[in-house]
Amino acid sequence: MPARKTARKNTKTPAVLTTPKTRRIRAAADVSGAGFRLADPMWNAREILAALEMYASFGVGAVVFPELCVTGASCGDLFRQNILLDAAQKAVKFLLKETTNLPVTFVVGVPERSRSGVLYAVTLCIRAGKIIARNKKPLDAPATVFAPIELVSTLRKRNPERLILCPSAVPSALMTPSDFRSFALAAAKEHQADFILAAPKSGESVTDGFYGMPVCCSVMVHGGEPVLAELTDPCPSLEFASEFEPAKTQYLLTFEEDPKKLAALGRDPLPFLPKDRTDTIWIAAALESALAHRMTSAHADKLVIGVSGGLDSTLALLVSHEAVAALNLPASSVIAISMPGFGTTKRTKNNAARLAELLGCDCRTVDIRPACLQHFADIGHDPEVADVVFENAQARERTQILMDVANGSNALVVGTGDLSEIALGWCTYNGDHMSMYAVNSGVPKTLVRHLVSFYAGEHGGKIAPVLQDILDTPVSPELVPASKSGESGHKTEQILGAYELHDFYLFHLVRLNESPRVILRKAKKVFDGKYAPEEIRRTLELFLRRFFTQQFKRSCSPDGPAVSPLSLSPRAGWRVPSDASPALWLDDLK
């Protein structure tokens, strides 16, 4: 959403909150983030205060905000800047002063540096203008380690009620919505306490992670068993006794993945695919939200995307369409450019044009062949030789067109490359390898196909048949001349092997950290009868060789949201040198 110029005002009644009629108060998790600004503590403090005033007017007695909500959790090395740390402390002092007479206990997070120079993410529990409890964890601790605040009822001496307020800021690649639910239930059961988990819904950086968790969890313990109290916006709530004090001891909570779930994924031929429709909807919404967020932060009015009629550009186009709609911009804010080259087929060209037209995009066509022929003449390359120069010149010409159109339209170029292509380095360096926001970069090819199929069902009508034909079209970059029959002469899976094999290898190597020998054994078992053992081994060898040698392309890849269980971002995901040898891993297969 566009950045707001004033702090949030008390104008909206939370649907799940009512003024309590008994001597009990309500607790809530604030995750709206509507007016949040990354690295702007005083602005955020005013937003927090406005939210607290709203909750107080509806009888809410305790509120937990997301982790490091005063600054934002994704500031990175800005946390080492004294100017930010000092501003964060001033923001806390502002909150202490302004909440002296406010009948709400609340939990906020702030970065602090110890006297020895260690940086901490500190959780503060504040009541009546005073800090009544604090907890902390190292700022470089894993994102799945939490520093909660526990409150204990003083009305029930023998069996006191316990309330755990747990702020978090975990990227969605590390914890999915279902993981959040499971974690809240498990924590409530283990500690026999009512439990509230708050996660940022928007405002955090979408450079490499995505923090737009659509739920926060409230759990009440009944008869020793936890029960999810609420999982809907704007703020889940539960009741607890109005007289309480902070617990005497503080501790950390750690999210640990269910080994049975990981084991099941290890046997799954399509481990990246969501297991139910709810998760599919969430992934699509995450991509759309991340792109809309980047448009807002970049003050862009439009999006520019090269449409080829292939799976990747189709997904990026669909996400772009939904992103501008979320920002209340017209569909024509998406500039869809078809750039036919020497290998473009009639089928893909028509599908690209038809889909963009049906979506209401600003449709344009730029034939790149004249420019490429001029370029070949300039560099002395024979255009009859369809080699790597011939192929990559087309990809780079297309990128130049997209970038320049974006510059003239106050727009962002939306990248179309997916996670599988990034893993294999199946892209032209400084060609389709580059964009202003790589929205597909966290989506492997098998998931791309799944999401396009999902959008086909969502749109229906005239769009669904076009999407289905795109799904039925063999994957190809179409950079070499087509055959006389009009078919692409460049079918990717005939060159690289099946993408579902590559996605299986990627998941097991990076997500499960398994050796090639183990991966090969599992692949032969999982894909028995579908692919020959020789093909499985050959494809794995090719995957390993390309995965290592193409790291240099990933080392300078553009921003993009991580929405799958792993990331290859050089900043926050797969951080390895571009010079590493694959010999050890290839030898493991011998």
Present the secondary structure layout:
Blueprint: E1 24-29, H1 41-57, E2 60-64, H2 82-98, E3 105-113, E4 119-127, E5 130-138, E6 145-146, E7 149-153, E8 162-167, H3 177-191, E9 194-198, E10 217-222, E11 225-230, E12 237-241, E13 244-246, E14 253-254, H4 259-266, H5 277-297, E15 302-307, H6 311-326, E16 334-338, H7 346-358, E17 362-365, H8 369-379, H9 388-407, E18 411-413, H10 419-424, H11 445-459, H12 463-472, H13 492-496, H14 499-511, H15 516-526, H16 533-549, H17 551-554, H18 583-587
Parallel strand pairs: 1-2, 2-3, 8-9, 15-16, 15-18, 16-17
Antiparallel strand pairs: 1-12, 3-4, 4-5, 6-14, 7-8, 7-13, 9-10, 10-11
Helix pairs in contact: 1-2, 5-6, 6-11, 7-12, 8-9, 11-12, 14-15, 14-16, 15-16
Low-confidence stretches: 1-23, 230-237
| Name of the level-1 CATH class of the largest domain | Alpha Beta
Q: Major β-sheet, in short? A: 6 strands, mixed
Q: Which homologous superfamily in CATH is the superfamily of the largest domain? A: HUPs
Rg (C-alpha, Å): 26 Å
Strand content: 15-25%
DSSP, total strands: 18
Helix-and-strand structural type? alpha/beta
Mean pLDDT: 87
